[in-house]
Amino acid sequence: MPQIVVHHLNNSKSQRILWVLEELGLDYEIKFYQRNPGFAPPEMKQVHPLGKAPAVEIDGSVMAESGAIVEYLVDRHGAGKLAPDRASPQYGHYLEMMHYPEGSFSMPVVFPLFIGAFGVKSDAFQAYAESQIALQLDYVSLLLTGYDYLVDNRFTAADLQITFILQTARGLGFLGARPVLGDYLDRLEARPAYKKAIEKGGPFDLSFGRG
Ligand SMILES: N[C@@H](CCC(=O)N[C@@H](CS)C(=O)NCC(=O)O)C(=O)O
Questions:
Q1: SS3 of residue 44 by DSSP
Q2: What is the pLDDT of residues 11-63, one digit of tens each?
Q3: Whose CA is nearest to atom 1 of ligand 1?
Q4: Any domain includes 134
Q5: Do 100 and 133 sit in the same domain of this protein?
Q6: How far is the CA of 39 from the centre of ligand 1 (A)?
């Protein structure tokens, strides 16, 4: 068994790593960090130069970037779980969906958080942010129309990877008119491994004070 240490920041994308490790049944250790108040504490820079979460010690090195970490763990330890076969026609779509959450989807969803945190006063930027969030959410809704999961209609690491971004969008109040996305999150959050990862990671709240 590999010695895996997850540097875990509360309410962050490192929750994905705990979840994938639970799905794969791997042993791991967690080092806990608290947001300070919204950002990562400076000691996370001692783990990885970016000082962000997740950072994971594995196989003698430290990896950042949740998509790379999840893909690496599934590749090394999945034994057929959480990903389609590399030779299958679905594999390209799986890779696309694995990298879409941190690639195109993540940034517009955090615009409202930065608008709030830094008191940005621009109606034009607010309108742009909302239009870009709607664009991404409409795309994910389209991908899920008639399907329970993103790839091959079975749970894969791509569903795990997109969850945090959708939870953020839900917490900010953007999922109201899109029940297909709310139902999808309910399905993902009902997984025993998801619940175990939440138990191990500590309180997880992406409601941003909206209740
Ligand atoms: N693309 C990176 C994003 C890493 C990232 O920005 N993590 C956030 C937590 S969700 C963080 O550490 N924020 C604290 C900060 O920026 O100080 C990944 O998926 O791992």
A1: helix
A2: 999 999 999 999 999 999 999 999 988 899 999 999 999 999 999 999 999 99
A3: 65
A4: yes
A5: yes
A6: 9
